UniProtKB/TrEMBL annotation:
<feature type="transmembrane region" description="Helical">
    <location>
        <begin position="46"/>
        <end position="62"/>
    </location>
</feature>
<keyword id="KW-0548">Nucleotidyltransferase</keyword>
<dbReference type="InterPro" id="IPR043128">
    <property type="entry name" value="Rev_trsase/Diguanyl_cyclase"/>
</dbReference>
<feature type="transmembrane region" description="Helical">
    <location>
        <begin position="162"/>
        <end position="182"/>
    </location>
</feature>
<keyword id="KW-1133">Transmembrane helix</keyword>
<protein>
    <recommendedName>
        <fullName>diguanylate cyclase</fullName>
        <ecNumber>2.7.7.65</ecNumber>
    </recommendedName>
</protein>
<dbReference type="GO" id="GO:0043709">
    <property type="term" value="P:cell adhesion involved in single-species biofilm formation"/>
</dbReference>
<feature type="compositionally biased region" description="Polar residues">
    <location>
        <begin position="470"/>
        <end position="483"/>
    </location>
</feature>
<keyword id="KW-0547">Nucleotide-binding</keyword>
<dbReference type="GO" id="GO:0052621">
    <property type="term" value="F:diguanylate cyclase activity"/>
</dbReference>
<feature type="domain" description="GGDEF">
    <location>
        <begin position="331"/>
        <end position="468"/>
    </location>
</feature>
<dbReference type="InterPro" id="IPR029787">
    <property type="entry name" value="Nucleotide_cyclase"/>
</dbReference>
<feature type="transmembrane region" description="Helical">
    <location>
        <begin position="275"/>
        <end position="296"/>
    </location>
</feature>
<keyword id="KW-0808">Transferase</keyword>
<keyword id="KW-0342">GTP-binding</keyword>
<dbReference type="InterPro" id="IPR000160">
    <property type="entry name" value="GGDEF_dom"/>
</dbReference>
<keyword id="KW-0472">Membrane</keyword>
Length: 483
């Protein structure tokens, strides 16, 4: 589920360094401001979204992973501190801890994407979880050391608080940043589409009403439902919102995880880790669902096309006809059944490899003559079908003759030799009436099959059709004679 498959933001560009600088400064300042506003008195911020957001930005746009762009983000943090609070060694160290988180996550994610060139996968959920863990440990270590020093009694509580906040916020925010796209709103939104979100809201309300340690896991089934129903970006966003709401509710004792006692720092530590662990589950499910869907798309694409000739397979033709059903304009359909004459002699005289090459070249020549509007399918062996919307049977017949003569004169080259083929064609032609396209096609195929038999019986290399029982007047010598 690459974010590039969907519409993406163009806030940054490889070729606009000035815009990138402005973007980094604006985002750093904005999220520093938001984090500072969420800061509890004398404590760490309830959320510090800056690191997760900037890590996501740097990881998403690999070309931003340059020393000068990191430096700009760092300087923006220092300037913010200098303007609003203090400027000094503590500010330098704490902001360095922010950068440690940002750089660790972004470098690890971009490294992953570099290694998987063929199918870039922006969210490998489990890896991301580990990267946030590592980055949060590093960030908390530098931050706590810079703030109180290793010998202070408050070092470990501060470290734990710092780590749990960074880890949970990172796990919630980074997947969002890596997958976010401009939302596409469904026109025909039905109530059942909203049910997973409704279930999510109900489960969060249940967490508040029931409380206790288990309450934090209540939204998990609803989040997994979202993961199965919605896109990966939507799942990441809903997971982020749910996690952020839960942390806020726990911190304010609205979700009461310690029913009989007051909320303590270790409880908050545990709650944050619990929420982060929960948050990774729907992302993992969503990634798996996206991977399965992509696999299904690939498999059905393979089933729709004949691998040797690259025209439709029999089943692919039926799928294409179903799609055509919705947009058919013409009321008249022509179905041709084409069978290469004496193809067995090609295999016998030149080998199967030559036969395969000629089948592929034959199919491409037919497709080229029919044009993009006609459907060409390999029905099996050396038998092909062509379906076109023609204004009349005469027009369909004329096209069949064009195909036949273009094949007759086409020089197939095999290992320096020029070989010629001929094809016999049977035509079925008629109006839709009230029937579906598939019904008409099946009827016309039977007719085409009957007329193909007549073409073969009459000597091959000809087109036969119902129009006045016409058969081509020209008789060609047999292909085996020509080869
Ligand atoms: N190389 C190759 N040959 C194939 C393939 N599928 C079918 N054939 C061959 O196509 C030949 C069809 O032979 P027949 O059904 O006797 O028909 P024909 O020799 O074309 O004679 P007519 O149709 O009566 O003019 C057989 O020799 C098959 O082995 C394929 O995918 N590759």
């Amino acid at each position: 589920m690459s974010p590039n498959q969907a519409r993406t933001f163009t806030l940054f560009s490889e070729h606009t360094p000035l815009r990138n600088v402005v973007g980094i400064v604006v985002l750093t300042t904005l999220f520093y401001f938001i984090g500072a506003k969420l800061r509890l008195v004398e404590e760490l911020s309830l959320f510090w979204p800056l690191n997760g957001v900037m890590a996501g930005v740097f990881a998403r746009y690999a070309y931003l992973n340059r020393l000068h762009y990191y430096a700009i983000s760092y300087i923006a943090m220092l300037v913010y501190d200098a303007i609003t609070t203090d400027w000094g060694i503590v500010s330098l160290t704490i902001n360095l801890s922010n950068m440690a988180f940002i750089i660790t996550v972004s470098l690890l994610v971009t490294r992953d994407n570099r290694l998987k060139k063929e199918t870039p996968d922006p969210v490998n959920a489990l890896r991301l979880f580990n990267y946030c863990l590592l980055a949060a440990l590093l960030c908390a270590l530098i931050g706590a050391l810079g703030s109180v020093g290793l010998t202070s009694q408050s070092f470990w509580p501060l470290f734990a608080d710092w780590f749990s906040e960074q880890f949970s916020t990172g796990v919630l925010i980074v997947p969002c940043l890596l997958t976010i796209t401009i939302p596409r709103f469904e026109r025909n939104l039905r109530l059942e589409h909203l049910m997973p979100v409704v279930a999510l809201v109900v489960s969060v309300v249940a967490s508040v009403v029931i409380g206790g340690a288990g309450a934090l896991a209540f939204p998990l089934p609803a989040l997994i439902w979202c993961a199965v129903r919605y896109s990966l970006p939507a799942t990441c966003l809903l997971t982020f919102v749910t996690g952020a709401v839960e942390i806020t509710l726990v911190a304010n004792s609205v979700i009461n995880i310690a029913a009989t006692t007051a909320l303590t720092t270790p409880m908050m530590f545990s709650a944050r880790l619990g929420i982060a662990t929960m948050a990774i589950c729907p992302v993992m499910v969503s990634v798996s669902v996206a991977a399965i869907n992509s696999l299904i798309r690939q498999v059905s694409l393979r089933a729709d096309f004949d691998f040797l000739t690259h025209v439709y397979s029999r089943s692919g033709l039926y799928e294409a006809l179903k799609r055509e059903e919705c947009q058919r304009k013409n009321r008249h359909l022509t179905v041709m059944l084409l069978d290469i004459d004496y193809f067995k002699s090609i295999n016998d005289n030149y080998g199967h490899e030559c036969g395969d090459k000629m089948l592929a070249a034959f199919a491409q020549k037919v497709q080229e003559t029919v044009g993009a509007d006609g459907l060409v399918a390999r029905m099996g062996g050396e038998e092909f079908a062509v379906v076109v919307s023609c204004a009349s049977t005469q027009q369909g017949y004329a096209l069949a003759e064009r195909i036949r003569t273009s094949i007759e004169h086409y020089p197939f080259i095999w290992r320096g030799q020029t070989l010629f083929l001929t094809v016999s064609i049977g035509l079925g032609s008629g109006h839709y009436g009230s029937s579906t396209l598939i019904e008409v096609f099946n009827r016309l195929m039977t007719e085409a099959d009957e007329y193909l038999y007549r073409s073969k019986k009459a000597g091959r290399n000809r087109t036969s059709a119902r129009i006045a029982e016409v058969t081509t007047s020209e008789r060609a010598s047999s292909p085996t004679e020509q080869l």
